[in-house]
Specification:
heterodimer, A: mainly alpha, MetI-like fold, 2 domains
Chain lengths: 280, 292
């Protein structure tokens, strides 16, 4: 083995410098669109060709908290939807995930295919088809109907994530708890839940993110009555108030980024749920 | 066999399957009926392919449909290809150990939870004629007026749409690739190196075959999503040509309820195209992987 020189060769140092430049460029390119939001959100009369806004202003933020602002209503609707969809999707998906993760049965592949298929078929075809019937059933233009439609893109990721957890799960612990006298609920609470908890966190993360970001399904089923953050943002973006659009975007993405940071330790790139990021 | 043993699995599957069958399959099937002209609300109960014929052949709709189809295919193929290639390159970049790797990886993933609506707006802020890039150019004396800056958003080639998708999807596919790379360690490469493989050979014959399944499964999702996406082309597109989803939603929202049939037919066509392209893509990728 060659003696380790205290100083790496020129070519190695050059390669390392190049690598740093490439990483810096990559991060710069990925962050600039986000930085553009901060520039716009605090700008006022930002004339061309000023690179930085000369007048820093809180006008956009003032109109977000103003009395006639629709942002509070939109935030409330988005939150109710996301929380409701997250809870119900996990409760609905948990038994199916257990069945798929623990047992093999006839027709399993068909069931799996059906559950995954909403990730491939575009939502607009489904929402348009449901639209007419939802009007008839009184599910159009209200939170319940919109929440139901949000379940369609959410279910595949919830079931996939949880079934992945159940495929590494040993149900014998439950039997042991039962034989020691624990009831069904106590067994679930003290044995099953702690074991699958990381999976539930990841499933909830994706359920929340997909529901929170959903525009077109809300738009088609909400029929203009259900104002959520993406719906409000979309209509604001069609106007020309860049500062307001930017400020609203920041309000809209902040909770998602925060929740992702808080739950990051449960996430791994190999989890099947990571595909959920492609659906936002 | 007792009742519970026999019916356990169907009962466990029932809630999820109810959602999938009633909402997903139900919505698609009813949508298909509507696209075939079945609209009892306005007294139409005959089944016909009229809407499809109209879209594909009629003077009124054909150019909107075919130009839209071309744009949609171009945008989704270009976005998927660029995202996959750049994801691979950037994942390799972030894989080596270097000072600040954790921070760089964190920043790389920062846009994952950012919804596509926001991504489209960000691209607009950057690339519009009076956007940040144009302003930077103006400061450097390259452009005098906003109109000197090339039209890259709200352009007829969908460049803004592609930029927006690529910005969103590179980290998405990249994270999947990074996870695969990290689980590999460096053993395989060391082995290949000790056998005399050079840098390119190690990449082509060791790393690429191992990460390819991840790249392909990620890009299937990217392709299906971009093909059916509405927000991004609606914000960053032009009036003509429009992508198929944007046209479908416009027709569907038309006050004239007859246009609804055409809108529904377009969205069914989108679903069929995506379904078969994804099937073909999976078949092709399975063959490619096996060959390697």
């Amino acid at each position: 083995m060659a003696p380790v020189s205290s100083r790496p060769s020129i070519s190695k140092r050059l390669a390392r410098a190049l690598h740093y430049c490439a990483v810096a460029l990559l991060i710069f390119l990925l962050l600039t669109p986000l930085i553009a939001f901060f520039f716009n959100a605090f700008s006022f009369r930002w004339f061309y060709p000023q690179l930085f806004p000369k007048e820093i202003s809180l006008r956009a933020w003032e109109s977000i908290v103003a009395a006639n602002s629709k942002v509070p209503e939109a935030l409330l609707n988005s939150t109710i939807l996301a929380v409701g969809v997250t809870f119900s999707s996990v409760i609905i998906g948990l038994p199916a995930a257990r069945a798929l993760g623990l047992y093999s049965f006839r027709g399993k592949r068909v069931v799996e295919f059906l559950i995954i298929s909403p990730t491939i078929v575009p939502g607009i075809a489904v929402a348009m088809g449901l639209n007419i019937n939802f009007i008839r059933w009184g599910l159009s233009g209200n939170l319940l109907g919109v929440g139901l439609v949000h379940l369609v893109p959410v279910m595949p990721y919830v079931v996939l994530t949880l079934s992945g957890v159940f495929s590494n799960y040993n149900p014998e612990y439950e039997q042991q708890a039962r034989s020691l006298g624990a009831g069904m609920l106590a067994t679930f609470w003290h044995v099953t839940l702690p074991a699958i908890f990381p999976g539930i966190v990841v499933a909830s993360l994706f359920a929340y993110l997909i529901s929170w970001s959903q525009y077109i399904l809300t738009f088609l089923i909400g029929a203009g009555q259900v104002i959520t953050m993406p719906v409000l943002l979309f209509s604001t973006a069609s106007g020309s108030n860049n500062a307001l659009t930017a400020a609203m975007s920041l309000v809209f993405v902040a909770p998602s980024i925060l929740i992702l940071i808080l739950t990051a330790r449960y996430l791994s790139g190999k989890s099947s749920a990571i595909g959920g990021f492609g659906q936002l | 066999m007792g009742f519970w043993e026999r019916w356990r699995i169907p009962i466990m599957l029932a809630p999820t399957m109810a959602v999938i069958i009633l909402l997903f399959i139900g919505g698609l099937s009813y949508g298909t009926l509507v696209s075939l002209g079945w609209q009892p609300i306005i007294g139409r109960t005959e089944i016909s392919l009229e809407a499809y014929q109209n879209i594909i052949f009629s003077e009124q709709y054909a150019s909107v449909f075919w130009q839209g189809l071309l744009l949609t295919i171009w945008v989704s193929f270009a976005s998927t290809f660029l995202s996959a290639v750049l994801a691979l390159a950037t994942a390799l970049l972030l894989r080596r150990s270097f000072f600040g790797k954790r921070l760089a990886t964190f920043l790389y993933q920062l846009n994952l939870p950012v919804p596509h609506v926001v991504a489209a707006i960000g691209i607009l802020f950057l690339f519009s004629q009076s956007g940040l890039i144009s302003r930077t150019g103006a400061q450097l004396g390259v452009f005098g007026f906003p109109s000197d800056f090339p039209v890259v958003v709200r352009d007829k080639y969908g460049i803004g749409i592609i930029l927006s998708f690529v910005w969103k999807e590179v980290p998405f596919v990249g994270v999947i690739v990074l996870a695969v790379l990290q689980s590999l360690g460096v053993d395989y490469e060391d082995l290949a190196r000790s056998l005399g493989a050079n840098r390119w050979q190690r990449f082509r014959y060791v790393i690429l075959p191992l990460v390819m399944p991840g790249v392909l499964s990620g890009s299937i999702l990217v392709f299906a999503f971009t093909f059916g996406s509405f927000e991004v082309p609606a914000i960053l597109g032009v009036r003509f040509p429009r992508t198929l989803t944007v046209t479908a939603v416009r027709f569907f929202r038309d006050p004239d309820l007859n246009a609804r049939t055409e809108g529904m037919a377009i969205s069914i066509i989108i679903s069929i195209i995506v379904f078969f392209l994804v099937l073909g893509y999976m078949w092709l990728s399975r063959r490619t992987i096996r060959k390697d």
